[in-house]
What we know:
By secondary structure, the protein is α+β, with helices and mostly antiparallel strands. It contains nine helices and eight strands. Strand 5 and strand 6 form a beta hairpin. The relative contact order is 0.23.
Amino acid sequence: xxxxxxxxxxxxxxxxxxxxxxxxxxxxxxxxxxxxxxxxxxxxxxxxxxxxxxxxxxxxxxxxxxxxxxxxxxxxxxxxxxxxxxxxxxxxxxxxxxxxxxxxxxxxxxxxxxxxxxxxxxxxxxxxxxxxxxxxxxxxxxxxxxxxxxxxxxxxxxxxxxxxxxxxxxxxxxxxxxxxxxxxxxxxxxxxxxxxxxxxxxxxxxxxxxxxxxxxxxxxxxxxxxxxxxxxxxxx
Length: 236
């Protein structure tokens, strides 16, 4: 498996990329927290976008977002299923056992009354993905947001899998290994063509990843839905 060139967000270079970003969301980046439940990556990613959108309505001025009070976000992983809207979109026990599909995350936003669009990777090009993601991230009040659904092993974000083990070998060892993952994007750096992946998996780093690398890892089929992975865009 060829090593993917990624830049850790918390490195000096990663912080410099954030300063130079052409599209970024300060509120989402400040609210970011790792998932607590192994299978709740979709739930946690959704909670982050919903809370960022909530605070964006209170603090739309980007100059105030670095220091504004973000205590007590209304949506967090631990309270998402206290909302009847979430339970209408997905069954908590089943998500706890198996995780969720992109369709279920899409329905979660719909049940919460949000405007949302879903794109499977076989229906768009990498250039269309880049354009749509930049458009979402350009809303600095976090009224829009984007969640990527990708293969965490192929992107080399699952640190339990060594680099010398190929994707094909992983499938031969355990064809049912859960490799799908959800995480929000937080920024885009135009000069290097990298997105900031706010990876919610607690063993993974937040990283700057090339657009082509991220898009490639969306181009595989979810074994549960039998559809391609892709991305979800929350709109205002």
